[in-house]
Amino acid sequence: MNKPENIDSDIQRLRQEMLNYFQTHWKLFLLEGILFILLGLCAVLIPQFFTVAIVIFLGWIILFGGAVHIGRALVFSAMPGFAVWLFMGILQLVVGYLFITQPAAGVLTLTVLMALFFAFEGIAKISLAFMMRPLPNWGLMLFSGMTALVFALIISISWSETSQWLLGLLLGINMIFLGWALVKISLHHKEIR
């Protein structure tokens, strides 16, 4: 068997596995879709809150990660790379602290990072959509991926002027589209079960 035939058979196998998961676990996909829609609606209605909440939440995660790095560096101080581990931990502590105490500055930083996130997420969703292509409603996943790419472009163009609310709004819209796609896909697979 040559390479293109292997790829085709692998793609067919992945599609069948995906179909089996959708049919078997359609209720979980439906619940996940509804949850994403509700979270998305909240983020659309109060985007400034979600923008700041994202920054503060991430700040705490980074701060905690920094403390873990420092703790490990101190416990294993004889390990090669001690200074690097300690530096990474201190850097994470500082960045986490700044995100928590100065969320406005963190919003600008995160907005740029969010543009990268939407770009990579869009590419991943589009790839997933093409893997799902013969399955019903695969176009919804493609649409969700394309909107994520558009969001990345919008953020890149206007990030400094609109960063206080754009991040929360686009995150909310993205979650609504993803939720809608999951609901439609799960309900379709419920019907054919």
List the helices and strands and how they pair.
Elements: H1 3-24, H2 26-45, H3 47-75, H4 82-101, H5 103-132, H6 138-191
Helix pairs in contact: 1-6, 2-3, 2-6, 3-4, 3-5, 3-6, 4-5, 5-6
Summarize this structure briefly.
By secondary structure, the chain is mostly helical.
What does this structure look like?
This protein has 193 residues and is mainly α. The protein has one domain. Helices cover 91% and strands 0% of the residues. It is built from 6 helices and no strands. The chain has helices at 3-24, 26-45, 47-75, 82-101, 103-132, 138-191. The model has no long low-confidence stretch (mean pLDDT 86).
Relative helix content: over 70%
Low-confidence stretches: none
What count of helical segments does DSSP give? 6
Q: Element order, helices and strands?
A: HHHHHH
Oligomer: single chain
What is the total domain count?
1
In angstroms, what is the radius of gyration? 21 Å
Q: For the report, how would you describe the main beta sheet?
A: none
| Structure classification | mainly alpha
Distance between the termini: 34 Å
**Shape by Cα distribution:** globular
The fraction of residues in strands falls at under 5%
Please state the average pLDDT score: 86
User: How many β-strand runs?
Assistant: 0
Index terms:
193 residues; 91% helix; mainly alpha; 6 helices
